[in-house]
Design a protein that fits this description.
alpha+beta, two-stranded antiparallel ribbon, about 140 residues
């Protein structure tokens, strides 16, 4: 199990290192512009990936331990959604150290590359397990 975990982490590090080779895509949403990347499935079909798209204000400061607050606008005009966001604050099962951050109110969005806004598409929502104690929205799932 640990071997698979370490291999997955190594693959992700390699993918992050070569991120500049992927085609970038931009999408305008109500809060601003999100920058993602174009990726390819094993069957050759293309899809757009947007990682760590914030869906609420950061739960820090006065917002800590409060219900999520609506995010009306991103902090900058464009945000980079090509890399994974932080896991929620938790204790690592491997190192026994605390990892992650309080700023974890984000989601990953995947869409077919040939999507257009005039046609409706099916939506799937996946909420990772972990019992509020471990796990994240990492692509290593």
């Amino acid at each position: 199990m640990w071997r698979q975990f370490l291999i997955a982490k190594a693959k992700r590090s390699i993918n992050d290192a070569f991120l500049f080779t992927k085609t970038k895509v931009k999408v305008k949403v109500n809060q601003g512009v999100i920058n993602g990347c174009l990726e390819t499935l094993p069957n050759g079909n293309k899809f757009m990936r947007f990682s760590a798209v914030p869906y609420a204000k950061k739960p820090i400061g006065d917002l800590k331990f409060k219900a999520p607050q609506k995010l009306l606008k991103f902090e900058t005009d464009e945000i980079d959604c090509t890399k994974e966001g932080d896991a929620c604050y938790q204790k690592s099962a491997i190192t026994k150290k605390f990892i992650g951050s309080e700023n974890c109110l984000h989601l990953n969005v995947y869409a077919p590359a040939d999507s257009d806004s005039s046609s409706k598409k099916a939506v799937m929502v996946f909420i990772h397990g972990g019992g509020f104690m471990f796990d994240s929205s990492s692509v290593d799932l």
